[in-house]
Give the backbone structure.
Amino acid sequence: MNAIGLLGYTNSLMKKIYLDHNATTPLHPEVREAMLPFMGDLFGNPSSGHWAGREVAHRIAEARESAARLIGADPEEIVFTSGGTESDNWAILGALRDRPGSHIITSSVEHPAVFNACQEMETAGHELTVVDVDRYGQVSPEAIRGAIRENTALITVMLANNETGTINPIREISTIARERGILMHTDAVQAVGKVPLDVRELDVDILSASGHKFNAPKGIGFQYVRNGVELKPLIVGGHQERGMRSGTENVIGIAGLGKACEVAMRDMPGKDRDIRALRDKLEKGLRDAVPETEVNGHPTERIYNTLNISFKYIEGEALLSMMELEGIAVSTGSACSAGSTEPSRILKAMKLDPLCSRGAIRFSLGLGTTEDDIERCLRFIPPIALRFQEMSPFSGK
Ligand code: PLP
C-alpha cells in the first residue's frame, strides 16, 4: 500500500470527531423515529378533508404546539418555513413590502441571510444603517438608539452569533424599538433549541429559527410572528399556514422539528451543563498549551457550545487541514465562507488584529461530543499549533 493509500486506510479506522455543530447538527435518534411514519402510512396532504389528510394535519398542529412551547409563543404565532434563510429573508422583505423608502437598522455581524437581504433592500431604494459592534462582537442598545431616524421601520439584530456565539442584549434593543413603534426582528437560529428563550420576555415582533441547528433535519424552520404583526407573505399560493406561507407543507420535516423542540426542552439543562464543561475544558487546555491565543467573542455572554479561538501568527486554514487529516471537523468561519482565506467579515467587524483573525478556528460542540473527543483535540492540536507558530515569519521566534 502506498503512503496515500495508507493514510486513507488509517483515516477510515480512526474515530471521526465532529465539532461543527453551528454549521449543522446530526439528527437526534428520537427525531428520526418521529419522522419515519411520514415516509410510510402518513403520506396524506394535510389540506385534504379525508382521513389521510386529517391525521397528518393533526400531527402538524402538535408540532406547532411544541415549537410554540419551546419559545413561549401561542401556536398561531408559529409559521413553518424552509429554514433560517427563508425566515430571515421573509422578516425583512415582508416587513418592508408596503413601506417604500423606509429605513432599516442592522448590525455588522449578521449572518448573510439577514445582511444580504438588508443590502438587497437598500438596492431597492430603502435606507440602511449597519451598526458597529464592540470587540466582543456585541451590539450596543445605545448605538441602535442613536441610529433611529423618523422613517425607521425595522430593527434586525441577531440573538447569538454563529461564528463567536456572542449573545446580544435583545430585550434592551426591543424595548427601544417598542418605545419608538419600530418593528423588531431577531435571527435566533443559533439560540433556539440551545438556550431557554421566551418571546414575551424578549418582546420581539418576529423571530427566526432553523431546525438543523438543533438536531432536526435540514430544510425546515419556523418564524414566530407576534399576534397582530402584519408580515406580508413571500410565497403565495394555496393559503397553507393561514396564507402566511403557501405550498404543501414539508410534513416529514415538520414532524422532525416538532420532536426536536420537545427533546430540546427536555434536555436543555443537562446539555448546558455537560457541553459547557467540555467547551470550557477545550478552551482552557488550548490556552494553557499554546501561547498567544485569544478567545474571540464575549467572555460570559456566549452560547455554551461555541469556542472561537485565534492562534496568533497561524493560518487557520493550514491548521484546519491538519485537523481534517486527523478526522476532526471544525471550521474557520461561517460554513458559507469555508475555503476562503480572507479573515471573516465578523472578526473584521470586531476589529481583530489580522494576525489573530487569520488563525481563528471555530469549535462548536453538541449532541455526541465526548470527553474523549476533547482530550484527543488537546493532544493533537497544541504541538501542531506550536510548530506553525515557530515557522511563521511574523512570530519573531
Ligand atoms: N442565521 C444564522 C445565525 C445561521 O447560523 C444560519 C445558518 O448557518 C442561518 C441564519 C441560515 O439558516 P439555514 O441554514 O436554515 O438557512
Remarks:
- The domain at 29-263 is CATH 3.40.640.10 (Aspartate Aminotransferase; domain 2).
- The two ends are 39 Å apart (CA to CA).
- The pocket of pyridoxal-5'-phosphate is lined by residues 83-85, 88, 111, 113, 158, 162, 187, 189-190, 210, 212, 221 (CB under 6 Å).
